[in-house]
Write a structure and sequence with these properties.
Blueprint (H helix, E strand, L loop, with lengths): L1 H7 L11 H15 L6 H22 L5 E3 L9 H8 L12 E2 L12 E2 L18 H18 L7 H7 L13 H11 L18 H4 L10 E6 L4 H10 L2 E5 L8 E6 L13 E11 L2 E7 L11 E5 L16 E6 L3
Parallel strand pairs: 2-4, 6-9
Antiparallel strand pairs: 1-6, 3-7, 4-10, 5-7, 5-10, 7-8, 8-9
Helix pairs in contact: 1-2, 5-7
Length: 336
């Protein structure tokens, strides 16, 4: 019964919940689906109130004529502030970038659609957990794809190694970092496979004995990175060749993205701020709406099986929708 009520939330407006008992049962359904357990009755009551507030937000957004929908997911018992503390960190970009500009390529005839998902170069969606390590997942996600395209071998690199070991390069583990610093670290130290140096979503002391193995990429196989110009043309051209490590500003509604082409009025008032590292894996058009296809690191149950679509050609022409064109980095790979 509880699970059925959770499904019905997609179809029943909040104002139809006349009986509070029904809303409470919906929360029970949420707990059952996502295996939620709370330390005591007081905590459970608090989470129930937050859950119902989030349901109201989701219904209000979905009642508008927007090209996307929000939905209940495993984060529906968290406030926006709690969610941000777990997943997001301001990414402070060094404007005096050490990386080079993108190489000048011959003109590319851009296809109407690019989608790297079925090409066998992307690992199953990963989950950063309660750690602001999105930057590490963005760096490895793009690099894994580049390596697979170059060699035909799909490997899974260690995000935990980057979290633990790249602080001397400017990263701050679970408190944030930048993909360019990750690539600098990998250039000098190589990187292990995830199976050798597994992820635990915590800041730990660097495991030097594991780092010396470098059984994923050896020292020098990544010899730097370059930046892309902040234009749609630059990103689309790069995506024809491979997925790209980028950043965005994830606003308070984005955590509940469910389907469609996301856009946000909030993103239009945050300047050039970015707080979340992701991987661009394609682009296309859906029901007349141009979009970029992005890979997230919040688990496979979030969004479109861990992916999302966001407006291409945003209102802010310089930065893109939610600043997706503000920060784009490509590792230079010398794969054997």
């Amino acid at each position: 019964m509880a699970a059925l009520l959770l499904v019905l939330l997609s179809f029943i407006p909040l104002y139809d919940f006349i009986d509070q008992d029904i809303a409470n049962l919906a929360f029970v359904g949420f707990q059952t689906k996502y295996g939620k357990r709370y330390r005591d009755e007081e905590e459970g009551s608090k989470r129930s109130r937050i859950f119902q507030d989030n349901l109201k937000l989701i219904e209000e957004v979905n009642s508008q004529d927007l090209p996307y929908k929000l939905g209940v997911n495993e984060y529906a018992d968290l406030t926006s502030e709690e969610f941000s503390a777990q997943k997001l960190r301001p990414l402070k970009v060094d404007k005096k970038l050490k990386g080079s500009d993108a190489p000048e390529d011959d003109a590319v005839d851009l296809p109407d659609v690019v989608d790297w998902r079925p090409k066998g170069v992307l690992n199953p969606i990963k989950d950063q957990g309660k750690c602001g390590s999105c930057w590490a997942f963005s760096a490895t996600g793009a690099l894994e794809a580049q390596y697979a395209i170059a060699t035909g071998k799909l490997l899974s690199f260690s995000e935990q190694q980057l979290v633990d070991c790249s602080t001397d390069y400017g990263n701050n583990g679970c408190d944030g970092g930048l993909m360019e610093y990750a690539y600098d670290y990998i250039r000098d130290n190589g990187i292990d496979l995830d199976s050798t140096y597994p992820y635990n979503a915590k800041d730990n002391k660097c495991q030097d004995t594991l780092v010396k193995k470098a059984d994923g990429l050896s020292v020098g196989e990544v010899n730097g990175f370059y930046k892309l110009d902040s234009t749609d043309a630059a990103l689309m051209t790069a995506l024809v060749a491979a997925p790209v490590s980028i950043a965005m500003y994830a606003d308070s509604n984005f955590r509940f993205y469910s389907s469609g082409v996301y856009s946000s009025y909030i993103c239009q008032i945050v300047g050039d701020s970015i707080n979340h590292g992701i991987v661009a894996v394609g682009y296309g058009t859906e029901e007349g709406k141009d979009y970029y296809l992005m890979r997230n690191s919040w688990g496979p149950s979030w969004g479109l099986d861990g992916y999302f679509k966001i407006k291409r050609g945003g209102a802010d022409g310089e930065h893109g929708e939610c600043n997706v064109l503000e920060y784009m980095r490509v590792a230079t790979l010398e794969a054997n």
